[in-house]
Amino acid sequence: MTRAFDDPALGLVHGKVFQQLQPKLIIRRLRTANASYLAKEALAVELPALQKAFLALLANPATRPDIIHAHFADAALLAQAAKDAYGVPYIYTPHSLGIDKLWHLTTEAGPQLSARIAQESAALSGVDAIIVSSRDEAERQVSAYGLNVDGYTNLH
Length: 156
Known about the structure:
Rossmann fold; 3-stranded parallel sheet; 3-stranded mixed sheet; globular; 6 strands
């Protein structure tokens, strides 16, 4: 699941709402009123419309997954909405957490970074499971959000 947008310079495929890659692998793209390509930093204004489109898609039980695996906090907020509305559990893989960036700043965090940290905190608070890519993410970065990582399992 991702956002549909129309930008011929980036390829027409991004405007397709349904793309079958393999028999059991499909990309579904959500359309909103804004069909322009947006940088990640500009997506925050689209989150309410994306959430509405996502929940509308999931209203049909035939299109509802058994579980959602979200990457990044904005996707986890959509997954949390699906959990709240339909009881679909979600797994979250956080990437490049904002709180880690905050520790390295020599000045105060701006409103964008503060909003990002709040989003990440909300995403982590409602998650059913977390998948991290390193021990550092588990023990230092995710735990900085107040989560107990005692159940950390190294799958490598």
